[in-house]
Amino acid sequence: MRAIEIQSLTGPAGVTVVETNEPEPDSQSVIVDIVCGGVSFPDLLQSQGLYQYRPDPPFTPGIEASGVVRSAPSGSGFKPGDRVAAWTRGCLAETVLAKPEELFALPEQLSFEEGAALVMNYQTAIFCMVDRGNLKAGESVLILGASGGVGTSGIQVAKGIGCSQVIGLVSTSEKGEIALDAGADHIVLVSDTWKDEVIELTGGRGVDMTYDPVGGDRFLDGVRALARFGRLVVVGFAAGDIPTVKVNRLLLRNVTIVGAAWGEAVAHDPSIPDNIHQRLLPMITAGAIKPPIGQVLDLSEAQEAYRLLDEREAVAKVLVRMRPDPS
């Protein structure tokens, strides 16, 4: 079978496609033939040796994909032919071995492409915005990096739980269209005055939550854009720089900065993914959640998928197609 392999920790330059052996079946695992795999910012960081989980090269990357069950042990809850979304390490390959708890039945409303874009971003959005940030229906949200996979999933989850106003911050008008298509009520372009525009859109009040997967120089204005008792949820640092804040700013309007890491939480409580998935299903059925798809590349173009992320050209979700869609 073919698989993506990280051969050196040099970012896109170290990404290649190799021929390797298929995984050996065992009595506890499900074999899945992968149709699409998702490539996200943590994958890029891992290819550079900058992520928390740092395997030594060569290794097969990936933690989210979609596909079809080839075989499954009795009692696993799966059977051959089932469409599934997977979150398992090393899944950017044509065939993977997964534990049953690392698989979700893929809802009929979603394609394989959408299934490969479902797990990481939407699990993150529910965990970070709702479980850690306590976001509620009727509140307002500012989404930084609103055209990317994390941003668009945040928009859809916020709308799905009934937020009254969702504002997306983007760097270009073209990216703004992606945020609007994902369900944002308003977009604001990055400028020297974008924080003031956000406050104006909220009638001078500010937002109840800033959802920040970007960091860098946008973080501080994300704090300034908060209403009294607002929360900024720190999700990641796509801008590359880890920001700091003088904590007296938190006193000015009784605001809170919340750290939120889905992966760290799951490592300590493996029941979290299924719990979140059950909460996502009604939103999927209602049509509130339908993952926007950006670039879909052939497996032979895997290096390009990493380059798009590295050079900030990625929009929505970047996917790599492992095999033709069997449906």
Topology:
Blueprint: E1 2-6, E2 15-19, E3 30-39, H1 41-47, E4 65-71, E5 83-86, E6 95-98, E7 103-105, H2 112-116, H3 119-132, E8 140-144, H4 149-160, E9 165-170, H5 173-182, E10 186-189, H6 194-201, E11 207-212, H7 219-224, E12 226-234, H8 248-252, E13 256-259, H9 262-268, H10 272-286, E14 293-298, H11 302-310, E15 317-321
Parallel strand pairs: 8-9, 8-11, 9-10, 11-12, 12-13, 14-15
Antiparallel strand pairs: 1-2, 3-4, 3-6, 3-15, 4-5, 5-7
* CATH fold title of the largest domain: Quinone Oxidoreductase, Chain A, domain 1
Mean pLDDT: 94
Overall outline: globular
The H-and-E topology, N to C, reads as EEEHEEEEHHEHEHEHEHEHEHHEHE
Give the beta-strand count.
15
Structural class: alpha/beta
CATH homology-level superfamily of the largest domain: Medium-chain alcohol dehydrogenases, catalytic domain
Rg: 20 Å
CATH architecture of the largest domain: Alpha-Beta Complex
Question: Percentage of helical residues?
Answer: 25-40%
Helical stretch count? 11
In the predicted model, the low-confidence regions spanning at least 5 consecutive residues are: none
How much β-strand is present in the residues? 25-35%
The profile of the biggest β sheet is: 7 strands, mixed
- Give the domain tally: 2
Terminal residue distance? 21 Å
Q: What is the highest CATH level, the class of the largest domain?
A: Alpha Beta
Produce a short descriptive summary.
The protein has eleven helices and 15 strands. With 327 residues, it is α/β, with parallel strands linked by helices.
